[in-house]
Amino acid sequence: KHLNMDEQIQKVQQYLNNDKIVYYINFGGLYFENFHVPELLSVCSRNSIQIQIVEPYFAPILFFISNDLTQELLSQICNQCTQVMYYGQVASISNKIDDEPHPKCKQLIDNFYSEPLTFSMQSNIIGDVFQHETKLHHLSQIQQKSGFIAPKANLSNPQSHLQLIYDLQSDPTIFIFGFRIASTEKPMRKFINDFALPKRKFLGPTSMDNELAMIMCNLAQIKAGDFVYDPFCGTCSILVAATSVGAQCYGGDFDIKILRGKDTTYVDSFNQYKLPIPDLNWQDISKPAIYKKNFFDAIICDPPYMIRAGSRKSSQGKNDKFAQDTEVQTAKELYLQLVKLASQLLRVGGRAVFWLAVPLGDFDESDLIQCEGMKIEWFPLQKLSSKYGRRLICYLKQKEEVGECRYMKEILCFDKIRELVGLE
Ligand SMILES: C[S@@+](CC[C@H](N)C(=O)[O-])C[C@H]1O[C@@H](n2cnc3c(N)ncnc32)[C@H](O)[C@@H]1O
Predict the structure, then answer these.
(1) Is there an atom of ligand 1 within 6 Å of 306 CB?
(2) Which residue's CA lies nearest to atom 1 of ligand 1?
(3) Is the CATH code 3.40.50.150 the one for domain 194-420?
(4) The CATH fold of domain 5-184
(5) Where are the alpha helices (DSSP H) in 285-406?
(6) Are 261 and 181 in contact (CB under 8 A)?
(7) With a 6 A CB cut-off, is 294 part of the ligand 1 pocket?
(8) Does residue 237 have its Cβ closer than 6 Å to ligand 1?
């Protein structure tokens, strides 16, 4: 991480030298760090906005340039990302607080403040605390050095914010002076707070965290009116997120007990948020109840990670038509069935997004099922322990008639995970 930070600063400076507008996003921390870029780029793609990230990216501050962006569009994309905290435009960047501001700083400020506005100036410190006096001292220094003549200060309700960000976690520390455009507003914050699992009416041991469920929906690039299918729906936590963005949802699971619920059911979770109830089927993925080819906009799911027995029996005994056992499947077969199903049911341009348990260490596309016409777009890692984690796999269906789905390797991540957890 430390070696290239100077390189990153230099690149941002070069863009400023060349009169490019450089934007920054603070993702608010290292939490879900590996999902920041995939989520942002997926959200941009859904909004038909092109951005170019200044590489290398070191969380939590990401820099990018774009030709198509206005402040409104920037707010639109940032408000759709789960992890963005605030964002703005860079006026100057350096690795020493005493450095002169970038030569373009004054000009940028003048352009930004073409009309007299009320403003506030604040500092944000990442990774440490600073004395208030020190912050004030730095702020007044940068204000003087940049030749910024304050229009009219208004700290409680300013029309614009100037911001001095210190990223003390990075080595070397970076100092960014910029115009804070906004922090993420209600819709996403509201989803994250109101839809948090502890408040959910119907939950199970493997219900998906609501932020991750929304990251999955964003990687799948779903929008209102899309058809979304979760063939391992369980308590429907992924479908709650998909329905909340206006998708029409379908689900399936082979565990009749989870589909029926007990004191509460999945219906309660949807009623809780006044969302339409999805259409669920009792089914084994190997015999899917829904089979409409080239139809779904997205298949989003969290398959079981290990060898699983057949479906659990219903409590209503032999007379229950749901009582039969389904086949025993290995994770290897199950993933193959999933990718095959996705390659058939997705429309061209549709996406399959699902988790895969993996040992930590080397991993590349050759560890994943390959299928001509199904492009692997992303596979970011979420670490779950010092030995293993899970990757969020995203396939894009590129043509109607796809090739055969197959594994490329003999030893698969499932086998390695089984070894790690002590299974034969
Ligand atoms: C990791 S959980 C998914 C949890 C779900 N995302 C939720 O929010 O509750 C995997 C689910 O897949 C179901 N399942 C396992 N094997 C299956 C199969 N062969 N066909 C259909 N469902 C299966 C399990 O019953 C379980 O509910």
Answers:
(1) no
(2) 304
(3) yes
(4) VC0802-like (3.30.2130)
(5) 331-345
(6) no
(7) no
(8) yes
